[in-house]
Write a structure and sequence with these properties.
Elements lengths: L7 H4 L7 H17 L7 E5 L7 H4 L5 E6 L2 H13 L5 E5 L10 E7 L8 H10 L1 E12 L22 H9 L2 E14 L5 E13 L4
Parallel strand pairs: 1-2, 1-4, 2-3, 4-5
Antiparallel strand pairs: 5-7, 6-7
Helix pairs in contact: 5-6
Bound molecules: S-adenosylmethionine.
């Protein structure tokens, strides 16, 4: 499915200039806050954090947020925004393609990044390992979009995710109490100019002693 790499470094400076993108992140943050009891002692990882649209909303509610991303350009923008907002509990981590995800987090969040990851099953295994017990993973991404969401499908490995496929992958990685809730809706023209509705889900899985 992937045609070519997408240059997120190049897009970083103007990433936040799209109101629909900012609203989507707000809606995803709202869905996470409704599903997970965020507490001031929590250490959180935002995988594929981009410019921190989600990380910056969560940071005031928890102990720390690590924003991890393969784009140094995105991380620089996040660092500048965190400094400007006086948020000292945000750190960044650059991930090379294929880097392993280590750490010990209470919560891992990810928004609109999984469709850019080829081997989602492998990633889920790594995220599971990087969680404490108890720990929780929240992944927001597109419901199946038939390849219509992006103007250019370069760097897109999955045209959204079907009803149960991702949930099954969560379970295979070891997650329990896997559930999916609606998180956001985006109305936007596809590349033919036709206005379309896209829906974004939030999939939640827990790592518990019984897993
Ligand atoms: C569509 S953007 C979403 C950014 C942010 N979560 C948001 O909602 O605005 C996808 C992000 O994932 C990052 N990314 C893509 N593949 C990645 C990978 N394998 N590991 C880490 N980050 C990745 C990109 O650099 C980009 O910042």
């Amino acid at each position: 499915m992937k045609k070519q790499e997408r240059d997120f470094d190049k897009e970083a400076a103007t990433w936040d200039d799209h109101p629909a993108r900012v609203k989507l992140a707000e809606d995803v943050a709202g869905a996470i806050i409704r599903q997970v009891a965020l507490t001031p002692d929590m250490e959180v990882l935002d995988f594929g954090c981009g410019t921190g649209l989600l990380a910056l909303r969560i940071a005031p509610l928890v102990k720390s947020v690590t924003g991890a991303d393969s784009s140094r350009g995105m991380l620089k923008v996040l660092e500048a925004k965190a400094a400007k907002q006086g948020l000292s509990n945000i750190s960044t981590r650059h991930l090379d393609a294929g880097s392993r995800i280590s750490g010990a987090y209470d919560l891992i969040v990810s928004s609109m990044t999984f469709h850019h990851v080829e081997h989602v099953g492998v990633l889920l295994g790594e995220l599971f390992q990087a969680l404490k017990v108890p720990g929780c993973l929240c992944v927001a991404d597109l419901d199946s979009d038939g390849g219509r969401f992006h103007e250019d499908n370069g760097g897109v490995f999955h045209f959204g995710f079907g009803k149960s496929a991702l949930g099954e992958m969560f379970r295979q990685a070891g997650f329990a109490k896997v559930r999916k809730v609606p998180a956001a809706k985006v109305d936007k023209p596809d590349r033919t100019g036709k206005l379309r509705k896209f829906s974004i889900f939030l999939m939640i899985g827990e790592k518990s002693e019984k897993n």
